[in-house]
Amino acid sequence: MKKSGAMLAAALLSGLLSATPAQAEYPDRPLRMIVPFGAGGGVDALARPLAKELSQILGQSVIVENKPSTNGQIGMAEVARAAPDGYTIVMSSAAYAITPAFYQDLPYDIRKDYAPVTILASNPLVLVASTHFKASTVQDMIAMARARSGSVNFAAPGNSGIHFLAGELMGSVAGVKWTSVPYKGAGPAFPDLISGQVDVMFDNPASSLPFVQSGRLKLIATTGQQRLAAAGNAPTVAETLPGFDAANWFVLAAPAGTPPDRIQKLYDASKRAMRQPALVEFMDRNGIGAILSTPAEAAGYIQAEADKWGGVVRDNRLAVQ
After folding, report:
1. What is the CA radius of gyration of the chain?
2. Which residue from 19, 107, 214, 312 puts its CA 20 to 30 A from 301's CA?
3. Is 22 part of any domain?
4. Where does the UniProt annotation place the signal sequence (predicted)?
5. How far apart are the first and last CA of the chain?
6. Does residue 8 fall inside a structural domain?
7. Which domain holds residue 258?
8. What's 151's domain CATH number?
9. Going residue by residue through the chain (321 aa), what tens digit of pLDDT does each one get?
10. Could you tell me which of 101, 84, 167 has the C-alpha nearest to residue 317?
11. Considering the domain boundaries, does residue 23 fall inside one?
C-alpha cells in the first residue's frame, strides 16, 4: 500500500508540473520600433527595411512608429517610459547623443534611461555648394572667410543637429567664422542653395548627391576619414583640416532594465538583418557603412560622441535659436 501511495503521489506531481504553462520564448508578440523623426527622413529610410528583416528573423512583426518632434524628444521620452521587456525599441541618429548638449531639461537621460543594443551604421556627411559659389575646395572656402569674416553662408538644416555642428566644428578647426542660416531641414534649404541665396551646406549623401549628379549642386568634400566611393571619391575635409571627422550614425536601444538576454537577442538579430542583401545594397547606394557594435561598445561610442559634440557646443557657446 505504501508503494502504491508513493506512486500515486508521484503521478499527481507529474501531472501538476505538466499542467504548468511553459514560459513563452521572446518575442511572442509584435515589437514596436519608435523612430523619433518624421517619415521619409534618413532614420526612417533605414528603419523600415531593417524592421522588415528583423520581422523575418525574430518571427514577429516589428512595427515602425514615427513620433516626430524637436530633435526627437517625444519619441525618446516615450521609449524611456516604456516597459523594459524588449517589445519597445527606439532607432535614432546622432541626435541621440547631441540633443542633451543643447537642452538641459530633457524628459529623459541618455545614460540612465536606455540600454543600447548596437550602433547599426554611420555615414559621413557631404559638403555641397551652389554652382554659383566661387569656392570649389575647402581651402578656397577658408581663404574667403579669412579675407572677410562671415562671407561664407552655411545653410544649417536644423540648429542643433549634426549638420549644423559639422559646420561649427569646421569653422572652429579652421579658425574662421561662417554665417549660419537656419532651415527646418535640408528639404527647405535646397531651393535657396540651388539658386545661390546661400553658399554651402552639410547634408546626408542620400539627399544631396542626386542634386550633384544632375548638375544643380557641386560637391566640395566629405566628412569621413576616408574618401567615399558613393560620392565619386571627392576629397575629405580632413585632407585640409587633419583630424576633422563628422558622421551621422544610427543607434538601436531599448528601455533601461530590459533583460540582458533580450538585448542580446535583439543584437544578434540586428547583425543578421544588416547583412541581408537588400540592406547591404541600400547602404552601399547611400554611402552608409555598417558598424554593428556590441551593446557595451555602443554605450562607449555614445558617451564619446556626447563628449565630443558637447565640447563643440560649449567651446563655441552655441545655443538653440
Report:
1. 24
2. 107
3. no
4. 1-24
5. 88
6. no
7. 31-122+247-316
8. 3.40.190.10
9. 455 555 555 555 555 444 445 568 999 999 999 999 888 777 888 999 999 999 999 999 999 999 987 678 999 999 999 999 999 999 999 999 999 998 888 999 999 999 999 999 999 999 999 999 999 999 999 999 999 988 999 998 776 788 889 998 999 999 999 998 988 777 888 999 999 999 999 988 888 888 999 999 999 999 998 998 888 889 999 999 999 999 999 999 999 999 999 999 999 999 999 999 999 999 988 889 999 999 999 999 999 999 999 998 998 888 875
10. 101
11. no
Residue with C-alpha cell 511572442? 28
Question: What is the rounded CA–CA span in Å between residue 176 and residue 88?
Answer: 44
Whether 281 and 134 share a structural domain: no
Task: Classify 243 in phi/psi space as left (phi over 0), alpha (psi -120 to 50) or beta.
Answer: left
Q: Which of 204, 239, 274 is the last residue of a domain?
A: 239
3-state secondary structure of 128: strand
Q: Which pLDDT value is given to residue 19?
A: 47
Amino acid at 14: S
Q: Which helix (H) or strand (E) covers residue 13, if one does?
A: helix 2-19
Residues 112 and 157 in one domain: no
Q: How far apart are CA 252 and CA 50, in angstroms?
A: 11
- Element containing residue 290 per DSSP (H, E): strand 289-290
| Separation of alpha carbons 25 and 165, rounded Å | 44
Q: Is residue 190 part of a domain?
A: yes
pLDDT at 68: 84
User: Alpha-carbon distance 154 to 201, whole Å?
Assistant: 6
Cα dihedral sign for 33, 39, 43, 49? positive
For residue 34 the three cell numbers come to: 519608435
User: Which of 184, 146, 171, 204 has the alpha carbon at shortest distance from 68?
Assistant: 184
Q: What is the pLDDT of residue 1?
A: 47
- Sign of the C-alpha dihedral, residues 81, 84, 89, 95? positive
Task: Give me the sheet containing 289-290, strands edge to edge.
Answer: 62-66, 31-35, 88-92, 247-255, 114-124, 289-290
